[in-house]
Design brief:
The protein is mainly beta and about 140 residues long. It has a single domain (about 40-140), classed as Jelly Rolls. The chain has one helix and twelve strands. Strand 7 (about 95-100) and strand 8 form a beta hairpin.
Length: about 140
């Protein structure tokens, strides 16, 4: 878990400064214990239900966000793309299958705007650090 906390702080710094403890939208440095943030459904209507997130930071001005995302075992995220942001994934635990091969703990992936990626299949419950560099939009390419 120590590595998880370090990555959360690093992601927060990369996001351009985050918050004073407990205020997710302030633009100042902060420290946040991820276990104190409740899991909530991901607000993406075009994917199957089941994804959950712990939203750690949201910069409303830039539209960027940082979250820990949980894929339940057996979850399949369809092939998709984004037009308004790129995003980074850092696998914390579990395993996702992707066209590029397995994504396991310690794997980092950056997906640029307009580039198709996925599908992703969670073989086991999987958690990842998720960072967007702009507002998240989501366009599904396959409907499987």
């Amino acid at each position: 878990m120590k590595k998880t906390k370090i990555w959360v702080v690093l992601a927060a710094l990369a996001a351009g400064g985050l918050l004073v403890y407990g205020q997710k939208t302030a633009q100042k440095s902060f420290l946040l214990r991820t276990e104190t943030v409740e899991w909530a459904p991901m607000p993406i209507k075009v994917v199957p239900p089941g994804l959950q997130q712990r939203l750690l930071h949201e910069n409303k001005e830039k539209g960027s966000q940082t979250a820990v995302v949980r894929f339940p075992a057996g979850y399949r995220e369809p092939r998709h793309y984004h037009t308004t942001c790129g995003h980074s994934l850092y696998i914390l635990k579990g395993r996702l299958e992707s066209p590029e091969g397995p994504l396991t703990p310690g794997t980092f992936v950056y997906s640029a705007p307009q580039e198709r990626h996925g599908p992703f299949l969670a073989r086991v419950e999987t958690e990842l650090l998720f960072f967007t560099d702009g507002p998240l939009d989501f366009f599904v390419e396959d409907k499987k």
